[in-house]
Amino acid sequence: MIHPDAWRPVGGLKLEPNAQKAVTMVGRNVVVAAGPGAGKTELLAQRADFLLRTGICSYPRRILAVSFKVDAARNLRERVRARSGTRLGARFDSFTFHAFAKRLIDSFRPALAGQNALDADYRIDLTDRIEREQITLNDLVPLALEILESNKYAVGGVRQAYSHVFLDEFQDCTKAQYELIKVAFGQSMPAITAVGDTKQQIMAWAGALDGVLETFAEDFAGVPLPLYQNFRSAPRLRRMQNRMIADMDPGAITPWAELVGEEGVVDVLSFDTEFDEAENVSHLIEEWLNDGIDPSEIGILIRQEPHLVAAELGRKLTERGIAFRNEQESQDLGAEPVAALLLNFVRVIADERQPTAYTELMRVMKRSNGSEEEASRHDSRVKRMLLESRRIVRAPGFEPAEIGSWRPIVEEFLDLVSLPVLTALSPGYQQGTRLMDLIESTLSAFQRELSVDGDAIKALKRLSEVDAIRFLTIHKCKGLEFEKVVVLGVETKFFWGNAVAAMSEYFVAISRAKNHLVLTHAGHRVRPDGVPAWRWPEQRIAQSKMLGYATES
C-alpha cells in the first residue's frame, strides 16, 4: 500500500486538474460531466487504481462499476486490470445494470413473493414472462429493486460488499435504474463516482431521465467536476466538435487557442446514388487497409437500420474480400465468454496461424483443481482432440460451408470442456437455458457468415472484433473510438425527429474519430424490397447544417 499523497497516475498520465480531483477524492461523492474523448473510462480506471493501491478500498471490500452496455462494462474491467494488475483488479466488479440486477436476484431470490416469486432455475426471455419460471430482461431491475426495498439484509449485504461505486455513462440512467442506485447506496458512506455527458444522452427513447447528473448531485451531495478536454481527436476534428459545442452548449466550448494544429482530416463526400457511395467508400477502406490501418480501427456509423442503409456497402466490401461485422446482427456475442471460447476453438482448428486464440483456448481448458498428473493427462487429451479436429476439417469429404459439418466437432469439444467449466465462465450461465441459448446463437451467427462465401476463415473474421471492420448504429458506438470513422448517410431522412436529440447523436458519431472523419450523403437511394414508400423516400436531401460544421472557419 502507498500513502494517498504519494500516488501518481499509472503510466505517467497527466490529468487535467478536475480529473485529478475526481480520481483522488476521499469522503465525498463526485459527479463528473465530461465530453466525448475527455477520458471518462481512463478516469474511472485511474480512480480504481488509486482506491485499491492506497488501501482506501480496503480488503476484502470491493469496487462496483455499473455501465449501460456489455462492451463498456468489459472495457472498463480490462482497463482496471491493465492499470492495477490481476491481484488488485480481481476486487473490481464491472457489470451492466441488467447483470447487477440479476446478481441481486440470484443472491436474494427467496425475498421475492407472490406473483414475482421465482424458481431456482428461472429463465430469462426477451419478451415473454411465465409465472415462477421465466422473466424478461425488462423485469430484472424492477425485481432487484423490490428485493432491496423489502429486505434489509439484501441492502446490508450490498453495502458491506462494496465500499465504492462507479456509475458510468450515467446520463442515460432510467427512473427505475436510478431508484435502484438510491435504495442500494443512498444512505451509505460517501463513495459514489458518477460520470456522464449530457451531450451523449441519446437514449431518451429508453426512458432516460432529464438532467439526471444534476439530480444525482442534489440527492447524493455530489461535488460537480466538469471535464472539457477531448484527448481522443486530432485538432481539425476537435475544431469541428467545438463549432457544434458553441451551438449546443456555449459555456462548454474549449478556447480556440488550445485547438491549434493541422493534424487530422475531415472529408465530406457527396454522391449521386448509394451505389456510387458504396463503390467509393469501399475503395477508400481498401486503401486504408493497404496502408496498414487495422480493421478494428475502422468504424462505419449509421443512425438507424444499418442492414438497409449499409447493404450496398456490405456487398462491395464482400466483393473486395474485406471482412465486416454488423453489430446489429452480432447481438453482443463478442462479450460472451462461451461464444469467445467456441469461436476460438473453430479458429484454431480451421486455421493453424492463430496463436492468440490457441493461448486463450488452452487457458480456459487448463485443469488446475486436480493433481499434476491429472492435469497433464487432460492437457494431452485436449491437444489430441485439436489435432484430430484439424484432420477432420481438412479431409476431402468435409464440407466447410455447411454448419452441419461443424456441429459434431463442436459438440465433442464442449463435452471435453465439461458443463461445470462452461457454467463457471459467467454467473449468468448457472441458471435457466442461457448457456445453451448462447451456444446455439453462436453457431447460428457462424452459419450466417458461412452463407456469404462458404469460407470458414473469412466467416470467423467477420465475427471478430479484431479482424473485421465494424458497422454500428450510433447507439452502439458510445464509448468506442476509431482511427477512421465513416458516418454514412448524413441526410435529413436519417437525422430526423427532435432536432436536439438528432444533433446530440450526430455529435456522438463524429467524436468517435481520432484522426480521420468521413461524412457521406447520396442524392438517391433505391427503396429496399418490402420497405413501404412512406418509410423510404428515394430522393434524398443532405443534412446541410450538420455537414456545415465540417467546414473550417
Automatic annotation (TrEMBL):
InterPro entries: DNA_helicase_UvrD-like_C, DNA_helicase_UvrD/REP, P-loop_NTPase, UvrD-like_ATP-bd. PROSITE patterns: UVRD_HELICASE_ATP_BIND (PS51198), UVRD_HELICASE_CTER (PS51217). The gene is uvrD. Its EC number is 5.6.2.4. SUPFAM superfamilies: P-loop containing nucleoside triphosphate hydrolases (SSF52540). ATP binds at residues 34-41. One of its GO terms (molecular function) is ATP binding. It comes from Mycolicibacterium obuense. Pfam families: UvrD-helicase (PF00580), UvrD_C (PF13361). It catalyses: Couples ATP hydrolysis with the unwinding of duplex DNA by translocating in the 3'-5' direction; ATP + H2O = ADP + phosphate + H(+). Keywords: ATP-binding, Helicase, Hydrolase, Isomerase, Nucleotide-binding. Residues 235-479 form the UvrD-like helicase C-terminal domain. The keyword Isomerase applies. It comes from the Bacteria. This is DNA 3'-5' helicase. One of its GO terms (biological process) is recombinational repair. Residues 13-234 form the UvrD-like helicase ATP-binding domain.
